[in-house]
UniProtKB/TrEMBL annotation:
FMN binds at residues 10-12, 36, 137. It catalyses: dimethylallyl phosphate + FMNH2 = prenylated FMNH2 + phosphate. It comes from Silvimonas amylolytica. It is an enzyme of class 2 (transferase). InterPro entries: Flavin_trans-like, Flavoprotein, UbiX-like. Keywords: Flavoprotein, FMN, Prenyltransferase, Transferase. This is Flavin prenyltransferase UbiX. The gene is ubiX.
Length: 202
């Protein structure tokens, strides 16, 4: 069972993060969720969701939302839970995705700031040589944004802006979301059937 940490920040694009969590659980992964206060605000704006401020209550909310059993391999950690497994290189898990990722979070990760658990978890993934995928949602990118992304890419971090393709003839917003989530799952080597692959006959 792979252990994947999913960080949700206050950038636009929370439908990507929610769908990612759903697909990781469906694929049999153990999922650890980190979320910021700004993500709570965006969840209400984009999805009409009111997320609890306490990690344990948010875990219950996610289980109810995704109709998961009580023993589903899902845990939520607060931003100051420094004894969480992903805070240490001795237990980093198999991968981490920050989806969506604000430019502020990306800059903090690039600078190794580690002022909260999300930033520390990302720092651990980099130092341990584990898969870290950042899904930055901003337009246009400034030179500073691009410099931070290049710095991280040179460290082996995957920079995956949520830019859906259209060659699969999407018919809904869900199709566009699945396109991006499929690319994230591919980076994590997590199997899925979200869309037909290029060159496959359908």
């Amino acid at each position: 069972m792979k252990t994947i940490t999913v960080g949700l920040t206050g950038a636009s694009g929370l439908p990507y993060g929610m769908r990612l969590i759903e697909c990781l659980l469906a694929a049999g992964c153990r999922v650890h969720v980190l979320y910021t206060q700004a993500a709570q605000i965006v969840a209400r704006q984009e999805l009409g969701y009111t997320w609890p401020g306490r990690a344990a209550e948010f875990a219950d909310w996610l289980r109810e939302h995704f109709k998961l059993p009580a023993d589903a391999p899902l845990k939520v950690f607060g931003q100051q839970e420094w004894f969480a497994p992903m805070a240490s290189g001795s237990n980093p898990g198999d991968g981490m995705v920050v989806c969506p990722c604000t430019m502020g979070a990306l800059a903090a990760i690039a600078a190794g700031v580690s002022d909260n658990l999300l930033e520390r978890a990302a720092d651990v993934m980099i130092k341990e040589g584990k898969k870290l995928v950042l899904v930055p949602r901003e337009a246009p990118f400034s030179a500073l944004h691009l410099e931070n992304m290049l710095k991280l890419a040179r460290l082996g971090v995957v920079i995956l802006p949520p830019n859906p393709g259209f060659y699969h003839h999407p018919k809904s917003i869900d199709d566009l979301v699945d396109f991006v989530v499929a690319r994230i799952l591919d980076q994590l080597a997590v199997p899925h059937q979200l869309m037909q692959r290029w060159g496959d006959e359908g």
